[in-house]
Amino acid sequence: MAETYDTLNSTYVLQVWQDQDITLFPIYTLPLTLDIWQNGDMQQYVVQIDQPYQEFQFEEVNKPDLFLMDSEFILVGELSHDKTAKQFQYQFLNYPDNVRARVAALDFFSKHPDDAISNEVFSMALDDPFWLLRKQALDFYEDDTTGLFDKIAQKVVNIAQSDADPITRATALSLLETKDNKKYEAVFKASLYDSSYAVAGQALYGYLQNDHPDNEEVTASFMDETNFNITSSLADYFIVKEDQNKYEWFEDKLRGYEDEELWYFIRMFSMYLVNVRDAQINDGIAILEDIALNHHLYYNRFAAYQGLEMFEDREGLPAILEKIRATEEDPRVKQYFE
What pTM value is reported for the model? Predict the structure, then answer.
């Protein structure tokens, strides 16, 4: 789509193309809403798109601040329209009840982080009543190419401490971890026993990044937890600390997981094995071999095989790896062996 404005005749012209390959796909008939905004007022039209190329003229219309085609977001295909940052800002501000319109505006600013308006819009989005937009704003500040995080840091702390949505609280904690981790350790500690596992696990990870007198006490209080958000944070801590006394804990948790959680924990278990005693390494190798040979999910067999590769210099490992390669039947795994 493209738009032009004839100042002399006060006529607004909207040009629309259907760009699909017409040898494969038909020209569609698409009745769509078109919102035209001028001076804070919106006029909605219904237009029918049913030709490869069409023009729609709106006479005696002042130059619009914004037009939004398919404002109800019913179109399945991709709608391409180059709008300015100012227009996307206008869209964000003037559709308080249209989440998709505001998400689309934030998508634009996510791709243009250095635009002067981006920080202003995302700062407002941190206060948005809809959790998805608050989370989208937090994601924007993770890379912080603008260097403006300090201006919204307190907002992020407030979200981490009191946002109604647990995923948004966890995302805020994750963002704080990427900044001055030690500066926010009180925020992490306050969230350790949050009612949401996602929040507690993220807080645990952030808190354990620094040495505290109560780190061992904190980890001990979570040792019986089985939720992956918690155990993955503990596992990371034990791996970094090279704590050789947690082998039984790792084995117990590994045996309790399935599917994607097992995939992740196999990798943690393999990394942990690197720094434990020989007898424990041998036991761990036997567990990984069993998973690589017998697990019903190909990606977990593959993860276990990759874990074993970390120990291929140990006696007997080349033969184990060869046996796994010989028995594997899934082409997605066999492709790796080639």
Answer: 0.85
